[in-house]
Write a structure and sequence with these properties.
The chain contains 14 helices and eleven strands. It has 430 residues and is an alpha+beta fold. The chain folds into two domains: 4-90 and 340-373, Phosphorylase Kinase, domain 1, CATH 3.30.200; 95-316, Transferase(Phosphotransferase) domain 1 (Transferase(Phosphotransferase), domain 1). The chain has a seven-stranded antiparallel sheet. It has a two-stranded antiparallel ribbon with strand order 7-10. The chain has a two-stranded antiparallel ribbon with strand order 8-9. Strand 2 and strand 3 (22-29) form a beta hairpin. Residues 161-168, 307-329, 362-379 and 387-417 have low confidence and may be disordered. Residues 341-356, 389-407, 415-430 have a biased composition (Basic and acidic residues). Residues 357-380 have a biased composition (Polar residues). This is Kinase-like domain-containing protein.
Length: 430
Amino acid sequence: MPATTVPCQYRTGRTLGSGTYAIVKEAIHIKTGKYYACKVINKKLMEGREHMVRNEIAVLKRISSGNKNVVTLHDYFETAHNLYLCFDLCTGGELFDRICAKGNYYEGDAASLVRTIFSAVSYIHSAGIVHRDLKPENLTRAEDADIMIADFGLSRVMEGGIGGEKLNLLTEICGTPGYMAPEIFKKTGHGKPVDVWAMGVITYFLLVAGYTPFDRDSQQAEMEAIIAGDYKFEPHEYWANVSQTAREFIQWCLTIDPNERPTADECLGHKWLASATPHFVPDPESPTGGPTDLLPHVKKAFNAKGLWRKAAFSIRALNRMTTLAGSGYHSEAQRLREDVASYKEESEKEKMEDASITHQHQSDSGPSSPASPTHSRNTSAAQAAAQKEAAKKQDDISVDNQNDRSLETTMAKMKLSEKDKELERKAEKQ
């Protein structure tokens, strides 16, 4: 179905934030007056990578409005310069800011959050979707509302495949390093179990706030710790206030072998989440033997790690963008900084109410609904297909891309080579 030019139904509100390649602005529906969060993507930043946005829309169309704890894509459209994706407006603040603002925070509160998130993960998986980038930064909430899973930019639709519900032939290295499962680094094929691993890391993080089980001084050391499943419940002063049941739950989620790792539904059946009575360590100073308040340690750890975490996230995002763009780190990094700043400034200037909109809300044209940027329409179908395939090889960092020299891929190959040699030595001894 061809795209139809229609008057825009929204007017532009204030800027809410900025991501790696997009800005987020308020969008006010002119007829209803309802506010939305609108991801604004400059199409120049998406040249050759339109499939990434189409994939995100395909995923969101499949799951939107099906679960209150999954962010809903309400609308999407384009102008000559930008792509717009309209989501629920979440103004409740970041998850840990809200936790730290509370008067207390108990293990039962953490279990309730994990239960809610896992229920949403179960729904996503039942719809044939793997998220692949679950982390606290992608858990958001509206004012006085339940927590929601957001940012499906790395998600994939998975239809059956080898291993059925548990494993599929996704082999690209993607995600946020501290939350990535061993099989992602190993490139042995991954699927829905990577979300369960990430939830184990998130649960660990929720109980101590500020660091993950695999925090290390370098990205290579972090990757090696993940592959080996090398983590501890330390420092003792923090974990002494957390029940053994919670620790067992984390250990279960962090099962190295994805074949043995529990599913989201199985995790919901674990006694830490399923028991009617919350699990906790009694407060020795409580006259009634009530639960220990985790908030003092949570605040201490969260405040200490807050600035480091934001800096590390920014560096990793830049490294990822540089990898997508190609080799030549320093020159590419500088060019990307300049281009991104320039393109975001362009996006910032456009007013939706004044723009000519190619509207494709709930289009019947399927996952390829967002029209390609205008410049692409002048190329032949064969050229467009070739460009798309070339860009996909860059973006997916797939196992077939032998020219990929990204840090993550290089580290993964080194580690696998070491493992192979270790196995050979063991075989020789036997």
